[in-house]
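Hi U.,

Before I forget, here's the chain from the pilot set. I'm dumping it here mostly so it's searchable later in email.
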Amino acid sequence: MKKVGKIILPIATVATVAGVVAPLVVSCDKDQSRKALKIEINGKPKGTFAVGEKFTTDGLSLMVTWEEGQKPEEVKTGWTTNFDGKTFEAKDIGTQNVFVTYAGQMVDYPITVNDAIVSIKLTSEPTINSYYVSQKLDLTGIKVEATYAGGKKEELKEGQYSTDPENGYQFQEKDISNKKIVKVIYSKTIQTEFAIEVKKDVVESIAVTQDPTKTKYLPGEKLDLKGMVVTATMASGNPMPVTGYTTEPVDGYEFRDADAGKKKVITVTYGTVTAKTAV
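Structure:
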């Protein structure tokens, strides 16, 4: 026997409730120095938990009857349970009984512990893994597999996870990298990632998409390229009007007799690419 204050308790005491052996904890607080006649579950305690979640008695209260014929008293704190401080593990999956002890009496209620995702990984990366600035992230082809605490594996559906950057994000100059990281996020602590390449957009070709306003000349008149529009096709596939190009002959070229009756070819050069038109 072990002496605690003025109350003598066995060193180890157990009780059997509905065929289940559970620890019987008798409180020695001054407010609970007397034994209750009966305790009953009141309120709606949290009844569903997931693996990795910590047990709580949120929502629980007790109706305590101290003496026969006495009106029950509601108690909202001061009890102990067999799951105090417990973080649920895979072995806890299923239905469990919570044994609540207060003032020398015990009552129980059921809870359910559900399996939970503990990790994710990519089983297939997106089809496109290389981009130019101004192109948009396309996650077509991605497959994300989740592993549960109990060992089960399943493919997550779109909407069950998110990505950073998100699908459809338009790449900018700041994203240029041969290893741009894309995070795949199930929760704050359960994530994975993959890398893509983001390159600077470059001009692949140019074309004269609008001829100059004036296209007919007589000898002695000067070439006027006003109104001409030159459009570049970028590596990303996007069209982009450009300026700063050069021409041969140059703007202001004076036509000669030798040019009469002929189409004069205008060669437009932008960087290393060229295009042609004629007047």
